[in-house]
Amino acid sequence: MSYIQNFMGASYPIHSAAEIKDAVTPAKPPTGVDLYARFALAGAICCSVTHGAMTPIDVVKTRIQLEPAVYNKGMFGSFSQIVRAEGAGALLTGFGPTCLGYFLQGGLKFGGYELFKKVIVENIGMKTAQENRMSVYLAASALAEFVADIALCPLEATRIRLVSQPTFASGLAGGFARIAREEGVMGFYAGFGPILFKQVPYNMAKFATMEIVLEQALKLYGKSKSELTSTEAPVFNLGSGLIAGFAAATISQPADTLLSKVNKTKAAPGETTGGRLFKLSKELGVRGLFTGLKTRLVMVGTLTALQFSIYGEIKKALGATNSVEISKA
């Protein structure tokens, strides 16, 4: 029996008992590259769909971060300001780079998390992994996010430039081409330090919190994952994902603010990214670094809850429910 087959039926996020039963004995269960390609596709779709749907909220959040003196009436007040001044279409600014960027990032993040978790367990053994599962969750999610951010950074730089400077370009292709022409490759990666500082802790908090909250919730509920019904499983995924989103948003908020500021304009001659970050942090202070947190909590909490639910459903549809499971729930 192969390594993957040893863990058949152990799935993340939760699937119902009936779903797991179906997944335990498929005619040809996906393994190897095929399995992780399915994980990646599920992650790509769930991230692209959810981030794309949240574009209007992301536009408002970014404007609040970049121009707090102008957009100072909270999330709903800022929505109205943007619509009155620029029309409803302005709320979809950056939709193209958001969908494409998070399609790439989501595939590498979710697929990478499943893969790195498997690699770690293979190297340290299942018993050790279960005894140190928080460390496994954190390490696997950090490694996956680092790889994913290499793909995300150019698209995120383009998105922020389009949102912060509405006249910069008419869309993804134009904005991408202009940055490449005027600033070169480094223009896309000016925010790579901040995006790592933001996304790596964010992803670590997101996956580790999701795993631990699920485990504790199931203990309180008195059921194992395999005993949950098809109605109960999505509820646990949504609830745990919401809490994970709140934790991830709070931890990564300062870096998210700095990323928006760094990508708003290009660096001055001779100015380093580290120098810009230090200067901006000093100017903003603690209060300024957490500007827009309420809006981001709404966005990230909702987004994360939906991501884990959609991810679980797509994995089920693709027959890729046999991920490595180290939770004791």
TrEMBL record:
It comes from the Eukaryota. The keyword Transcription does not apply. Solcar repeats lie at residues 34-119, 132-216, 232-317. It is a multi-pass membrane protein. The keyword ATP-binding does not apply. One of its GO terms (biological process) is mitochondrial phosphate ion transmembrane transport. PROSITE patterns: SOLCAR (PS50920). GO terms for molecular function: phosphate transmembrane transporter activity. It is found in: Mitochondrion inner membrane. Pfam families: Mito_carr. Keywords: Membrane, Mitochondrion, Mitochondrion inner membrane, Repeat, Transmembrane, Transmembrane helix, Transport. Its main location: mitochondrion. GO terms for cellular component: mitochondrial inner membrane. Belongs to the mitochondrial carrier (TC 2.A.29) family. PANTHER family: MITOCHONDRIAL PHOSPHATE CARRIER PROTEIN, SOLUTE CARRIER FAMILY 25 (MITOCHONDRIAL CARRIER PHOSPHATE CARRIER), MEMBER 3, LIKE-RELATED-RELATED. This is Mitochondrial substrate carrier family protein N. It comes from Malassezia restricta (strain ATCC 96810 / NBRC 103918 / CBS 7877). The lineage of its organism: Eukaryota, Fungi, Dikarya, Basidiomycota, Ustilaginomycotina. The gene is mcfN.
